[in-house]
Amino acid sequence: MSLTSLSGLTFAIVMLFLAGVHVYWALGGRWGTGATVPTIGGRAVLNATPLACYVVALLLVLAAVVVCGRAGLFEAGAWSPYCGFGSWCLSALFFVRAVGDFRLCGFFKTVRGTAFAFWDSRLYSPLCLVLSLLAVRVALRPILT
Hints:
mainly alpha, two-stranded antiparallel ribbon, 4 helices
């Protein structure tokens, strides 16, 4: 298995796991919800509805498909250019998420001392940086290999 294929497969596994977690939350699951949304003064800055969780799950599955298509894990056919462009977009998106908004999330956040901030510094932001690098590796794949 090539490094590109391995990168695409790793990216897809993470995306599909996260999609499953979002479906679990949409169905009423509570595991992990205490540290998944930024808070200020003990109040969540957003309220994730079940519909929002389903939409995020769908987008995560689509991200997995795009990167797998670019990595050559299946024949993308006419969609190949979109998979290439999408891989670059996903890399940029996850990099921007890792850097953060300089307030609530990312490596340079200023709001600290919350459960979300703890996990964001130790898991969420580093994971986003790794996902960005995996997507770059896949996006750099030569068209004909």
